[in-house]
Amino acid sequence: MGASVNFSQSNGDDEDSGYKPMAEINITPMVDVMLVLLIIFMVAAPLMVAGVPIDLPKTSAARVGQSKKPMVVTLTADGRLQIRNEFIDRDHLIPRLQSLRAEEGDGVVYVRGDKKAAYGEVMEILGLVGQSGYGRVSLLSQHSPAAAQSPAAPAQGAP
């Protein structure tokens, strides 16, 4: 499996140069073995990541990290602002967010904007949330299953 030896006959002029071994290493079997090992590891790696299924015991202890009520700032179609379920004036948005941040700590603020609201208004609300001290701001949208199923929307004017 390793080396092949080729003995060549010289023209007979020299006694020392009778048979000379010529060794060549054939790497094709080694490459085949490595490719098989690569495939085995590619198939086995996802199986090693999965955990062992266990049935956890029940306890009456409280969770360590109780999930807080999410901070959602909503811009309605008529331009009104709402923090969670409380309507608020645009001038009072920053002080109210700062007070909520002092009470609850820093977290993620989710901003929702009605699709009829102007893009500039939504960006202004994002800026105000940033000015209030929150570092993590996310925009919320609604999933459209019809858009996910269609491969591509036809261009305007296309049949």
Tally of distinct domains: 2
For the report, how would you describe the main beta sheet? 5 strands, mixed
* Gyration radius over CA: 35 Å
Any guess at the CATH architecture of the largest domain? 2-Layer Sandwich
What share of the residues does DSSP label as strand, in percent?
15-25%
Mean pLDDT: 76
Given helix and strand content, the structural type is alpha/beta
Q: Report how far apart the termini are.
A: 65 Å
Strand order of the largest sheet: 5-4-3-6-7
Low-confidence regions? none
Shape annotation: elongated
The name of the CATH topology of the largest domain is Nucleotidyltransferase, domain 5
E-strand count = 7
Roughly how much helix do the residues carry, as a percent range?
A: 25-40%
Count of runs of 4 or more consecutive helical residues: 4
CATH class of the largest domain: Alpha Beta
Query: What series of H and E elements makes up the topology?
Result: EEHEEEHEHEH
Please explain how this structure is put together.
The chain folds into 2 domains: 3-45, no CATH class; 71-141, Nucleotidyltransferase, domain 5 (2-Layer Sandwich). The chain starts with a strand and ends in a 10-residue tail after the last helix. The protein is built from 4 helices and 7 strands; from the N terminus they run E-E-H-E-E-E-H-E-H-E-H. It is α/β, with parallel strands linked by helices and 159 residues long. The chain is 33% helix and 22% strand. The mean pLDDT is 76.
